[in-house]
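Q: Hi! First time doing this. I have a protein sequence and I read that you can turn it into a structure. Is that right? Here it is:
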Amino acid sequence: MENTSENDPLKIYFAGDLFDAKDLGGNLLLAHAIEECSGHRYKVMLPQDGESEVDQRSAASIRDADFELLFESDIILANFDGTELDSGTVVEFCFAKMMDMPALLLRTDFRDSGDKTLPDGDPWNLMCSCYPRTSVLVLNAMLFYHQCKADGKENLAERFYASLASEILRGLDQVVTMKPWLEKEKICSQLSTAVKSIGGTLPERIGDAKMRALADAKARSGLY
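A: Yes, that's right. Below is the predicted 3D structure, encoded as structure tokens:
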């Protein structure tokens, strides 16, 4: 499906670890590479960027701010690296699926894990697989790194992230064409259900007026 707002980039919620320097720096560099390589057709929303903006920081307030950003986005890009998936990323992915958001599950970790032993298994727990409007992209980051390194050490980091981004863009471009199951006229009621099920301060953050505005924006995005 095509984005009906030609001048408005589709917003990607980048779900993943954001707990140390490697996470924060890697997320930032990959987000920048995706935006640049896409010609800014996509805008990457990093939850880490809003951490300092949360008033009266608490587990609940940070959680609800992240959910608000998720529902303001059009697509979820979920980092599924590690021998065990980040639990917060899995929760965000599940609520994205509740809203029928196109989802790209990205794994750059070359280690096998989870239910990969099954014929159709992915390298994570099978309960995180087989969802509608979802694509899986498994990249061997080590291989990409050494391929870029063989081409020269100049601007190695930039070329490394650009090479990953080019593959991710193919996945994103594919997943946004997948047929939705959520009908346009039901977006607002589905969003209301999701917000109520999360609770906390989210119903206050996303009141009736904002909920209608978000539903209208999603309906105009060309994804539903």
